[in-house]
Write a structure and sequence with these properties.
By secondary structure, the chain is of the alpha/beta class. The chain is about 45% helix and about 15% strand. It contains ten helices and seven strands. It has helices at about 15-25, 50-60, 75-85, 90-105, 105-120, 125-130, 150-185, 200-205, 250-255, 255-265; strands spanning about 1-5, 35-40, 65-70, 90, 190, 225-230, 235-240. The strands form two sheets. Strands 2-1-3-4 form a four-stranded parallel sheet, sandwiched between helices. It has a three-stranded mixed sheet with strand order 5-7-6, covered by helices on one side. Strand 3, helix 3 (about 75-85) and strand 4 (about 90) form a beta-alpha-beta unit. It is globular.
C-alpha cells in the first residue's frame, strides 16, 4: 500500500508517479493508494489519527503486508506505525536503499550501499533489540555491563569506519586514474540526468558496451567508463553515471560520493 503524504506548509510537492515507479522498481505489487494532505506533522505517526484509521482499514481489506510512505519517517514514527497497522512500514529512504541493494554489482557499489544502509539502520536498532536488555539485574539477567543494543551499535560503528577507509582507497585509486587521463590529455564526458532517462541506452549506442538497461528507476548503480573515438575530439572517456531523483536524502548523496566525483571532474557533462 502506497501512502502519498503532502505537507501544505513545506513547499515540497509529493510526486505520485515517481513514488509509484520507485515501488514498482523495488518489485512491490501495489494494491491501493492513500493520499494525506496535512498542514502539521504528527510527532508520533506523521499523519493524523483519522487518516491512520483509514490506512489501517485499507490494510485489512486488501491484505497488504507492506505500507510505503512517500516521506521520510523518524525511527519512532516507523515503530509506532508498524505497531498500529500490524505490518511492515518503510519510508522513501528505506525504499530507495532497497532498490540500491538490488542493483549494486561491483565491489565499490556494494560498499557504498552497505554504508548507506548501516547509517540508516543505526537509528532504528532499538526495534530489534529492546527485548534483549540485560542490565536489569537479577538471576539470569546480569550481563557484562553492556546491553545487546549497545553492543550492536558499537559493532555498527566499527563496520562503518572500516567501509569508510575502504572507500577512501577507492577514491584514491580513482584520483590516480583521473590524473593519468589528464596527463594523457584524454577528456572525460559524463552522461548525467534523471534516473531512467535513457543514459545507459545512449551509452551503449555510443560505446557498444552492452551495459544493463531496463525500464526501471536506478537500473544503473555502478559507473561504467569506456574509451571511444569522436571525430571532433579524438579519444575520449565516456562515463555512464547513477541517475538523479528529486529530494534524494543527503545521507545517500554522501554515501555515493566516490561515484559522483566522476561527474564533478568531467570535462563535458
Amino acid at each position: 500500500m502506497l501512502v502519498h503524504v503532502n505537507l501544505r506548509n513545506d513547499g515540497r510537492e509529493s510526486c505520485e508517479h515517481e513514488f509509484d515507479e520507485l515501488a514498482r522498481s523495488a518489485g512491490a505489487v501495489k494494491v491501493a493508494d492513500v493520499r494525506s494532505g496535512n498542514s502539521t506533522i504528527s510527532p508520533s505517526f506523521l499523519i493524523g489519527k483519522g487518516k491512520l484509521e483509514e490506512i489501517h482499514a485499507a490494510v485489512k481489506n486488501h491484505g497488504a503486508d507492506l505500507v510505503l510512505f512517500s516521506r521520510e519517517l523518524t525511527p519512532a514514527q516507523e515503530r509506532n506505525l508498524e505497531k498500529f497497522l500490524g505490518c511492515r512500514v518503510l519510508d522513501r529512504t528505506g525504499l530507495i536503499l532497497d532498490i540500491f541493494a538490488q542493483r549494486a554489482l561491483t565491489h565499490e557499489g556494494k560498499l557504498q550501499v552497505e554504508l548507506a544502509q548501516l547509517q540508516h539502520m543505526s537509528t532504528r536498532l532499538v526495534r530489534g533489540w529492546t527485548h534483549l536488555e540485560r542490565q536489569k539485574g537479577g538471576i539470569g539477567l546480569r550481563g557484562p555491563g553492556e546491553t545487546q543494543l549497545e553492543t550492536d551499535r558499537r559493532l555498527l560503528r566499527y563496520r562503518i569506519k572500516s567501509i569508510l577507509k575502504r572507500l577512501a582507497k577507492v577514491r584514491s585509486q580513482r584520483n590516480q586514474g583521473r590524473r593519468s587521463r589528464e596527463k594523457a590529455q584524454i577528456p572525460t564526458i559524463s552522461l548525467v540526468g534523471y534516473t531512467n532517462a535513457g543514459k545507459s541506452t545512449l551509452f551503449n549506442r555510443l560505446s557498444k558496451a552492452g551495459v544493463y538497461v531496463a525500464d526501471k528507476l536506478f537500473a544503473t548503480l555502478d559507473p561504467t567508463m569506456r574509451r571511444i573515438e569522436l571525430d571532433d575530439l579524438g579519444p575520449v572517456i565516456l562515463a555512464d553515471t547513477v541517475g538523479f531523483i528529486s529530494h534524494l536524502p543527503h545521507k545517500l548523496i554522501e554515501a555515493f560520493k566516490a561515484t559522483l566525483e566522476e561527474t564533478k571532474n568531467a570535462k563535458f557533462v
